[in-house]
Amino acid sequence: MKILVVGATGTIGAAVSDALTARGHTVLPASRSGAIKVDVERPDTLDAVFATEPGVEHVVCCAGSGSLVPVDGGTDEEFVEGLRGKLLGQVFLLRHAIPHLPDGGSVTLTSGRIPETLRGSAFGSLTNVGLEAFVAAAARELPRGLRVNAVSPGWVSETLAALGESDGGTPAAVVARSYVEAVETTGLTGRTLTP
After folding, report:
1. In Å, what is the CA distance from 45 to each residue of 4, 40, 52, 66?
2. In the chain, which ranges are E strands?
3. What is the CA radius of gyration of the chain?
4. Residue 160: which CATH number?
5. Is the pLDDT score of 168 beyond 90?
6. Percentage of the chain with pLDDT > 70?
7. Residue 174 belongs to what H/E stretch?
8. Residue 151's beta-bridge partner residues?
9. pLDDT tens, 19-54?
């Protein structure tokens, strides 16, 4: 299968690209700064990739950023920017992929899990739970047997190590298995997979 992986230069995206390649798939690694440029906040960049890379069957999005803005701090614009990067960007990615994917193709998005004790977790919950609810509802509306799922990783071991934490998290290679499952499992749609 030919699979576009958006956010392929990140920790999870690189692991997903490696896992899909190891299973014999053709992976097109995309990011804001890579050779194949896709920015989830600019849906036209996805349209450009589909115009130059025919035959993409599946899209995996491991991109999307947003600060953990505390409810009693930050600015309204910081909330809006976070929604644009993490939630709306992935919603737009699905919408722009639909006309380009073949029957039975899929889009896999990334939500997440934020510890409730972390300041700003309410904003993280808003974007992640909102995305998961969108996936569940959108799956019922998709035409031509198209599928959409989300993967909800918690802390990734490599990210924690980069932050100076030596314990905890799930290795990116383990997280990547959920993305592979979402792409390869015919009939799986509207679900959020938790590694």
Report:
1. 13, 8, 11, 20
2. 2-6, 26-31, 36-37, 58-61, 106-110, 147-151, 192-193
3. 16
4. 3.40.50.720
5. no
6. 99
7. helix 172-184
8. 110, 193
9. 999 999 999 999 999 899 999 999 899 999 999 999
